[in-house]
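Hi team, as promised in this morning's meeting, here are the two structures we talked about. I've kept the exact order from the run log so nobody has to guess. The first one is mostly here for context; it's the second one we should focus on when we meet again. Sequence first, then the predicted structure tokens.
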Amino acid sequence: MGGMAVGRVDEFVSSKETFDATLTYIKALQRIYLQKNPGHQLHFAGITRKVVFDELSSNTVRNTPMKSASSAHDDKNATTTDTGAGSSASQVQIEQISIVDSGQRPVAQPSVPISPQAIEAEQTQASLAPPSTATVTPRVLPAEPATPLGSAPFNSTLEPGQIPQTGSVPKKPLLPKATFRIPNAKVGVPYSGKLEGKDQSGCTVQVRNPLIRTSLGLSYDEASGELRGVPLTDGEQRISLQWSTDGVGWFTGECLFFINPDPRSLWKNIEPPADDPYYKPNFDSTTIKSPSYSIIAASRRGRSHEHSGTFRDDDFFVMHDPVANWSIVVVADGAGSAKSSRRGSKLAVDAFGEHVKAQLSGDQGRKLAGDLAGWAADPEAASKAMGTDFHYLFHKAGTIAVQAIESEAQSKNAPIKEYSTTLLAAAVRPDGDGIFLSTFWMGDGAIAVYGPRGKVRLMGTPDGGEFAGQTRFLDRAALSDPSFAKRIGIGRYSELNAIMLMTDGVSDPRFETDAGLVNSNLWDQLWDELLPLMKSENPDKALVEWLHFFTPGHHDDRTIAILAPTLMSESGPPPQVVGEYR
């Protein structure tokens, strides 16, 4: 009876990995076949070989044709020719193997790789067989070795042509997991945050022994589960800890903890060029004392200017005439978008202040003092007369300030708008048990009479635009506006703690809105901060430092001038300083 084909392998490329996989495949086929055909034996019925020289022998390949088992022994006399230089060592590859059951004709099957040692064994068997024998002696494949670790176990349900899938090492049981959280902290800000964890089912877990670096300035309170202290360094911190669901079995874990930097530490402080023709110091301050009140003024470059290395655009002018008993306070905020506004603010406060000073020290000052003397008898008549005089006085002073700016712009062949600035002013005179003042308000910022506690009176309305930061600047158009009179304020107050003038660098972060400006509680809070500074040994220097307060989003230049009679009543009148002004 003819042989029945079991398997055949063609075009094998010799590699150990492919060989191992294919050999496993052949053995699987063998076992399946023998299970279905008990008592049968299998043998190799035909081999086609290919001899390949090693890589050192270039251009060397020689093939031998398909041979039957009867002629296999002739292969022992076969030779190959080395057509290249180098070693003549060769490798043998199987192109085709036929495995048959006796009496059945071979049927071609996919290629199966065999090792060189297996080839040599087959060649030896073939050479020993009689030349006329049609088949080689049947050879039983060795028993299946134990399944290697990581290999698929034998599966008797596989059909011919199916490739066993690689198995996997049994997985270890998954360890329980938990996630942890703790609120973020910020450098320099007192902190108290609870360290919490939950397992995969969402149940809260117990936490103990978190490892906290001492350099962080924080410590862990086991009783409350809180991290407490004042963080000293910023950054991402990894806190190693132990956790448990039942207090018996404990596992290790980790919690990410973020400490944000102090925003103030991110700001640079770059000095502006010292040789700039419009150079202006980063700070300015002064204190003037009179028998009736003290005037304290301070101006400081804002953080945004420090960070970019640009100049302070604000400026101020304060003065007290001990003979005429008039005081003048002026503050100005140069437009941040205007190239030379720092010069514009300086020109404006000086020109405006000097003109008002000259007028109040002369005949007009004496006339106004006479009108003020009749205030108690007829407040309406006195306020109307003095209001008209100050309307013209401030309009003239504003015109002189604009002319000073225009003259400077022309001398530099620059646009006038490059010198844009706001301007707020107050003329003040003591009167018996009260204080008189008249004000001029052009632009944003604030002028207010504060006190007694819980009471504030604004002396005008800040100019604003459609967008944040927009305002009205001192120019000819503003002076010729028919509504100019609304910029003049006048009043006499017997009870007050202070008269304050400030640029928007102070008013915006402290009050934020127009509604905030009339909120007496906010003014009370401001006064509580300012009063200790004004009582200090160097009040104006203390005020400069105070102006460096940090409010997110508000980093403009800051200028404030305070006239405070309450200081006199609490500490007694200081020695009179004659003719001092800034």
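And here is the second protein, the one for discussion:
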Amino acid sequence: MGNERKKKRIRWQVLLPPWIVVIAVLVLNLTNYEVFVSSMNRLIGWILKNFAWMFNSISLASLILVIVVYLSPMGRIRFGGAKAKPIIGYTSYVWIVLCTIMGAGLMLWACAEPMSHIHHPPANIAAGPMSGEAILWAMETIMLEWTFTPMAIYALPALLFAFVFYNMRKDFSIGSMLHPLLGDRVTVRWKTVIDCVCLFCLCMGMASSLGSGVLLIVEGVSRFTGGAVQVNAGSWSVCGAVIILCYILSASSGLKRGIKHLSTLNSYFYLVLGLVVFLAGPTAYILNLCVESFGAYLSDFFKLSLWTSSSEGDGWSLWWPQFYWCTWLTWMPISAVFLGKISRGDTVRETLNAIFVIPALFSVVWMALFSGTSINFELQGFGINAAMEASGTAAASYAMLEHLPAAILIIPLFLLTAFISYVTSADSNIHAISSLCTDGLEEDDTESPVSLKIFWGATIGGLCLIMLQAFGIDGMKMLADLGGFLSAFLMILFLAAFIKVIRDPGRFDRHRDNYDHAGRPVIHSNFREENGQFRKGRSGRDKRKGHGWDDGHQSHGDRGFDGGYSESDYGCEGREHRNVPE
């Protein structure tokens, strides 16, 4: 590629259409909100009722395919080629994933969702509300909705995007992920449309998520101050403005500054909160319920994954598991862009550990701690559900925390953790949105102009605050979930494209050093371990000696990582070999 760089330009054809539609939706909400929400509610209900089978099938297929890839030889392939350096340290990578794609949602729903499930179980729970059967059902349903399946929905497209951008050298675009399936001619024709639709859905999703964050934080501040801070439009505006300012500053500072440091800081807060709840809460009950419910989840996995409530006819699953699949699919395209973007230099298996395995296990532990504690407190008559019904979803978490020792210290920590979680989540999405609106991004330079980050940050933040002040965020949530329906069809294409890549990755990969003579993925030495990243979290700037093979092949001695390899070192004589820019 030489030293020449493409000049970065704004993709106006991607930026303007969704922005105009966002403004139009805002005007429509303000002029006739009740009609709009009523119409959208009926539409979402129709989609969930008629396409529950599709959402279930897609989510299960994603999980199965991710497991297959993890165990297959494709797990050895490194994004960007054998000599590609990781963008960030692996520990930072893991914490960024946890804080950006799941953290905020876990904090909001870990206590609230089990209250809804145990008090309003589906018709197939014969023992009824508050029974042991209802409690077990609540926990295994939560584990289905928040652990391995949603991580697979995010992970698979992220792998595909990273492979297409770093290994196939295609444009930085969601639509580019269809290249392996549809070829260049069809993909180039439709990728702009795909980017626009996904970008609009994300704007609605971000605005509604930000609104949920504002409600969660303001409710907590009000309860902590004994009502001195009122839950009203003024407090919402102040809280929202602070979050917006922080995520704009964080996104503008770049990936290796703002979001990296915030995620690392927040990781310690997560650990402290989890440890406090474990030690100060009903420890034995948490452990027993976790083991029992995880066993039930594994035992009933396929039944839960494909359940549609059609036999009972109560529609319960439509508004819980299927609604969640719709929500995860809404965020799927843009999350794939961000997660794929930060995966350069890692193998497929390393990436899956960071995006799929570790976050899923973290969610299991977090739900066991917070959901288990809230259920135990509800059984003791502490009124967790009553608080939620009186003050909204966010109140459940604070009602539970108030009954722990040292609540006066725990609640501020919870508030700070929630605040940073929403900032980092918004930061990652602003990164992805701005990148989609930028032409000229390259493998070693995926930062979009700061002006775009400020533009989109202000647009989405303003949309959220206006809707909160006027009516609420239900309309935006419904539009975001409608986007999940559209994304479901896109996900089907992604699944097909990825299956095609799995069958013969060497056919698409321009980095021949990832394969041996027979075209099979080879095992490279672990760059991160050799460069001390697992130990010190370094970004791979130092050269190390002894870049050998993991499987016992001859070491390459004192040749530095940055050079000194021939094609024969990789078993690639006679094949095209293109170095990744360092």
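Starting points for discussion:
Strands lie at 9-10, 438-439.
Confidence is low (pLDDT under 50) at residues 533-582.
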